[in-house]
Amino acid sequence: MFWNIGVTRKNSNKLLLILAIMLSTMILPSIEIRSSLPRVRVDDVLIFGVFALNLVIGLIHRTPSEYDLGLTYHEEQARGMRAVTGVFLLLLGSMIVSNLFGLIFLKTPFGLRDAMEGVTLAKYYLAATLAVSLDLQEGEFSLLRNIFLVGFAFILLLSWGQFLNIANVNAWLTPFFARSHLDNLVNANPPRVLGTFDNPNVMGIFSVLTLTVFVSMFYFRDNERAKSLFLFAAVGLTIKLIFMTISRTALLGTAFVLVLLSLWALFKFRWKKDMLIKVGALLILTLLIFFTSPRGFTTRINEATNLETSTSAQGHLLRAGNAFGYIKESPILGWGTAKTTMTTLVDDEYALITRRYGVIGLAFYLWLFLRPLKAALWKARFYNFSSPDQGLRETKILLGIAYVAATGAVFIYNITAGIFYNLQLMTFFALFMGLIYRIEGEND
Q1: How far apart are the first and last CA of the chain?
Q2: Is the pTM here over 0.90, yes or no?
Q3: N or C terminus of the chain: which is more exposed, having fewer CB within 10 Å?
Q4: pLDDT tens sequence across 12-53
Q5: How far, in Å, CA of 316 to CA of 22, rounded?
Q6: What is the DSSP secondary structure assignment for residue 183, as one 8-state letter?
Q7: How far apart are CA 309 and CA 167, in angstroms?
Q8: pLDDT tens per residue, range 115-168
Q9: What distances in angstroms separate CA 218 from CA 9, 109, 115, 438, one per listed residue?
Q10: Which of 163, 160, 162 is nearest to 176 (CA)?
Q11: Cβ-contact 178, 196 below 8 angstroms
Q12: Contact in structure between 20 and 419 (CB atoms under 8 Å)
C-alpha cells in the first residue's frame, strides 16, 4: 500500500497524519491564497502532499523487496483495500462513462472544473485508505479519541461564544469561519451558530455524527459511573449544540439517531432495567433541552411544518427543480458533470448526482456509503456485549454501530443539502469509513 512506504511507513507517522487531517477538517476553514485562485484546505495539502512524497521516496529508494511501492501488506489491510478500492472504482467508472456519454451524444462540454471531480474523489479515496492502513491498537485509539475530544471541545467553546457573542467573538473570530453567513445567521434573531464550519446546517450534521459515537458508547458499553456521567453530559452538550444551529435537517437526523440507537439497545439487552433507565434519562434530557429552547427556535421549527408558507422548503424545491427536468431527459447515464453549463446549486445531493451520472451513478454513489454500512452491521450482528473484558475489540464494534446511525443521518441530510461536495465534512467521514473497512478486515 502506498501509505506503507516513505514518511508513513511507521504506524506512528500514519497516526500523526490522520490526527492532523482530522483536526483540519474539524476546526480549520479553507484558506484563500489569492482571490483569483480556488481556496485551499490544509487537509488537501496534507493528503496529496504526503501521498506524492511517498511515491517519490518509494521510486528513489526502492529495493527488490520494495519494488511494489509498498503494495505488499498485511491481510487485514488487504481486505479493506480491496473493498474500498472496488467501491471507489465503480463510482469513478460511472462518472467517466456519464461524462463520455454527455460529451459525445448530448454535446455537453467537459472542462477543468469537471475534471476536478476526479481529484475530489481521489482525496476521499486516499483519506479512506490511510485509515485502512492504520494498525488501530489501544494506544492509537486513545490518542485518536483524546485529540477528537480536544477538537470538539474547541468547537463547543466557539459555538457558545458565537451564541452569546462572548468577548465580541462574532466581530473578530467568527468571520474567519463564516465568510457569507455572519449577518443573516450568527447575528440573526434567533442566532444560528456555525462553529468552525461555514454553514449552520453543516455544523448541525457534524454534531449529529459526533452524537452517534457518544450515544453508542453510553448505551452499549458497561461503563464505570464516572464515564457514564461524562458520556451523558457529552450527549446533552452535543444535542444542545445541534439545537443551537437550528438546522431542521440536523434535528430530524438527531431524532433518527436517538430512536434507532435506543431501540437497538433496548432489543439487544432485552429491555433490562439498566437500559430502560439509560433510554429514559436521554429522553428526559432531550425533552428538557427542547422545551427550554428560545422562542425563536420553536418559531423556526414550526415554520417548516407548513410547506406552503415555508420559505426554506420553497427555496430547496426551487433549487432542485431544474435537476428533475434534466433527469427526465437522460435518466440512465445523466449529463456528465457539466459544471460550466449547469448549476451546481442543487439542494438535494441525490438529484444532483442523478442529473450528472444517472441512476447508475446514483446507485454507485449510494454504495459508497452502504458498503461500509454492510460491514458494520455484519460485525455487530453476532457480537456479545454482555461478555466481560472486551476492551478495544468492543470499542471497534461500537464504532461500527455509530457508523450505522451516522449513515442514516447522512442520508437524511442529503435530501436538502449534501455531504459529498463538502470537502471539510466528507473528508472527516471518509476517515470514518476507512476505520470501518479496517475493522471489517480484522479476524475475530
Answers
A1: 23
A2: yes
A3: C
A4: 999 999 999 999 999 999 887 776 667 889 999 999 999 999
A5: 30
A6: I
A7: 37
A8: 999 999 999 999 999 999 999 999 999 999 999 999 999 999 999 999 998 999
A9: 35, 52, 44, 23
A10: 162
A11: no
A12: no
